[in-house]
Amino acid sequence: MPDLSFVFAQSLSGLTAAMFLFLIASGLSLIFGVLRVLNFAHGTFYMLGAYAAWQIVQWLGTAGWSFWFAVLGAASAVAILGGLVERFLLRHLYAKDELYQLLFTYALVLVLSDVAKILWGTQQKGVARPPGLEGATTLLGATVPYYNLFIIALGLAIAAAFWFVLQRTRAGRFIRAAALDRETLGALGVNVGLLYTGVFVLGSFLGGLGGALVTPVRTIVPGMDTEIIVEAFVVVVIGGLGSFWGTFLGALIYGQVLAFGILFFPRFSIFAVFALMAAVLIIRPWGLLGRPLK
Amino acid sequence: MIRRIPWALIVLIAAFCVPAFGSRYYTFLANDIVIWALFATSLNLLVGYTGLVSFGHAAYFGIGAYTAGILMKKLGVSFLLALPAAAGLAALAALVFGFFCVRLTRIYFAMLTLAFAQIVLAICFKWNEVTGGEQGMPEIPYPDFAGFESIGAVIPFVGGWRTAEYFYFVSLAVVAACLWCMRRIVASPFGRMLTTIRENPERAAFIGVDVRRYELAAFVLAGAFAGVAGGLFGIFNRGVFPDFAYWNKSAEVLIMTLLGGIHTFFGPAVGAAVLIWLNQQIVSYTQYWPLILGAILIVLLFVFPGGIAGAADALFRRLSRRLARA
Fold it and tell me: Are A103 and B301 in contact (CB under 8 A)?
């Protein structure tokens, strides 16, 4: 019987992982919800966010606020890249079969991850924790780094902000309307093209933000993109593609299953996650909180 | 008139002549191509003929490779039994996974096939005792060609071939037989029904077709042929490794299929040949093959959505119209 503080530490680390995943998967889910495009390149945007943050930290040094500038700068750069991709390439494929959109985003994965290799090489990179968040505290007998607590708080804050924007603002109403019926929305005089670009930019921003924020706790390596995209897929599929709260729930479940799965079957914890995903897809193909597609 | 020429037969005969005229390198390249041609054509049973986009077809390729590899290396089973076993186990896995997958449509179908492929990958990676885990299984033996060699030594111009060349002939024969089977399948009433389902599943259901059962049958067939391709590839590659079931293999075979053209039977085989040849040309100049592949894919999607076969068909039609006018 594992003691309580261990269980607590394990669940908290699961929660931290869940918040990172939520940040990334919410962008993926948002884009799918509105554009109906499953963006394989979302993981690559995350990786580019990480590299960009590292690069900016190299330029600015590690003192003071530079880490936070790097995070914002990296996320914005990725958002701009996302906007360009949507505006000049992806847009021309909306009328075509889903297969073409899927393969286009996969082509982006291939191209962008090689570009990252050309720009930054294959050496592992890391970023120090920002000043003020280096230490750790003890909660219920478990050691918890401040940075993890910050990520949990930030994840919750972003979830709340997301909810507010979607439910209480005009742009949020358009986004929800576009997810339901884009033709009608267009007929009502809303610039759907611009809305799509905006959503893609926002989704890419979230991916880049996740990548930038993860740099103090995970090493930056080529291949981190495919790793995260598969995880993000699992999260959105469990929660429901396009569903905001579904993504949140999916991330929480994923984090806990992974954190505790390692205890019970260390070698097959990833297997547990995929089995869970397959089970959800069989029982509720549209995810726990999602809606069936028309 | 051009259409009357038995192209498939000509290509087959030419392929059989490769070891006699080409160097060992060309035999190696041709062997790679024929195996991938089978893999891509098996995927096209789903993508092109049934309208199901599988993003996890490498799972069945991997299962076939591991089945044949384990049987031949660890248990010393003959190739003649190991290859059907590879097809059988891949088909069985496709039956189990497919049972769930065909319940979903479009993007969800693609994602579930990917999820199952990841499960297969996880098993290959972690089940060290059976699959060799991360290290995979190197040194899969070649089939026993002693009989062939003694025959080959007597026939003039034929003797002196190595095991690799004999294996090329065997894989060519197996692939040709499989392609012939698939050609018959898609031309059969069953195959026509798959096309009907691709065009309009609702209408197919409306006239009393059990759409899911047909889709599942197609999924199992595609899985079995992918298993054969995997079994051959493990031997050809002299080893079986977990990345056989990795999702970039699934994507690669999908790209081949699309590159060749999903609306023709031999399109995917052409796509496999072009992509493998291109890969061999390019990797000697640069390590950034994915970048090139991505660029090819983007051009393909935007400029030639019908693939090589689609583009050739359009060109051919334009030419024949011009000839008719003249």
Answer: yes
Residues B34-51 have pLDDT tens digits of 999 999 999 999 998 988
Nearest to A289 by CA among A239, A252, A251: A239
Give the one of A92, A107, A117 whose C-beta lies nearest to B294's C-beta.
A107
Domain count, chain B: 1
- Rounded alpha-carbon distances, angstroms, from residue A176 to A90, B133, B268: 21, 46, 40
pTM: 0.86
* Full domain range(s) for residue A37: 25-147+192-220
Per the CB < 8 A criterion, the answer to whether B219 and B94 are in contact is yes
In a domain, B216, yes or no: yes
Q: Verify whether the Cβ–Cβ distance A107 to B248 is below 8 Å.
A: no
| A226 reaches B (C-beta below 8 A) | yes
Show the domain range for B51.
2-247
- Cα separation of B128 and B123, whole Å? 9
- Tell me whether B115 touches chain A (CB under 8 Å): yes
| Distances B178 to A63, B41, B183, B305 between C-alpha atoms, Å | 65, 10, 9, 27
- Report whether B55 contacts B191 (CB < 8 A): no
Question: Could A96 and B305 be called an inter-chain contact, meaning their C-beta atoms sit closer than 8 Å?
Answer: yes
Q: pLDDT truncated to tens, each residue of chain A (294 aa)?
A: 567 788 888 888 889 989 999 999 999 988 988 888 889 899 999 999 999 999 999 898 877 788 899 999 999 999 999 999 999 988 888 888 888 888 899 899 999 999 999 999 888 888 888 887 777 788 777 788 888 889 999 999 998 998 898 888 888 888 888 888 888 888 888 888 888 999 999 999 999 999 999 988 888 888 888 888 888 888 888 888 778 888 999 999 988 888 887 777 776 666 777 778 878 877 887 788 877 764
Q: Which residue of A88, A99, A241 to mutate against B (max B Cβ within 10 Å)?
A: A99
Is A15 within 8 Å of A252 (Cβ atoms)?
A: yes
Interface test with B, best of A101, A110, A270 (most B CBs within 10 A): A110
Report if residue A11 sits inside a domain.
no
- Which value does ipTM take for this structure? 0.82
The pair of structure tokens assigned to A245 is 């709260």
User: Which of A220, A239, A267 marks a domain boundary?
Assistant: A220
Q: Looking at residue B50, what DSSP letter applies?
A: I
Please state, as a whole number, how many other Cβ atoms lie within 10 Å of the Cβ of residue A248: 26
Whether the CB-CB separation of A66 and A60 falls below 8 Å is answered with yes
* Angle between helices A42-60 and A4-35 in degrees, nearest 10: 110
What total number of domains does chain A contain? 2
Q: Are B44 and B266 in contact (CB under 8 A)?
A: no
**Are B100 and A233 an interchain contact pair (Cβ–Cβ within 8 Å)?**
no
CB contact under 8 A, A282 and B100: yes
Estimate the crossing angle of helix A244-264 against helix A146-168, to 10 degrees: 150
